[in-house]
Amino acid sequence: MPKNKPQILVVNDDGVYGGGLRPLAKALASVGNVTVVVPERERSAASHAITLHKPIRVRRLEKNLLIMNGTPADCARFGVISVMRERVDLVVSGINHGANLGADTMYSGTVGAAKEACMLGLPAFAISVASKDPDVHYATAARFARTVARRLLERPLPGNTCLNINVPNRPWTRLKGVAVTTLGRRIYGRALASRVDPRGQTYFWMAGAVPRGVPEPGSDIEAIQDGKISVTPVRLYETDTSFLPVLRHWPW
User: Could you tell me the pTM of the whole model?
Assistant: First the structure.
């Protein structure tokens, strides 16, 4: 493997059988040397969780493809520190099957893995196809990921910032452009479905419809509804600086 080419780590939360994994790795192979470290099973909605209370076990399936029983953030951390031994130029998380818009980013394992790479001081982006349809245009997202990878290898991001990218589920020729966006507002329901198992024990499922989005001007939700790729810079630290002066005057 040529040492002078950029070293790219690919992670995801859909696991080793996720449909977007190989299209992404193949597209990035024209940019640099690609190493893949992903969960052994789907870990959607794992957010930025890391594994602290049980061993992490790793298996190498191919020369540059490893799977582990950890979270997406574990994959990013382990991939950077142990597999690639800090010789990483870029971390790419995806391609996720389903949107990561607005508040989705707080739940998303895809985004959590990109944030973990960002915490390690590396340029990183998360990329998702904004659809849960079974017929997914991964090639469109993979093509854009290649473009973004080249851009980030030339132009570094600000510290503590990664990119969250959502791509409409359509052929490349039907895209309406690219929009640099803010995170929009997603409205989540409060439904819980309860069931009783054969032993009489109650258990629950998260239920309800797919979260609705508010297409505010300039938001990622508006961009996707307009058929555009959304590119959102996401910061690691989210202190509400505007509220700090007020809070300091509270009678603590």
Answer: 0.94
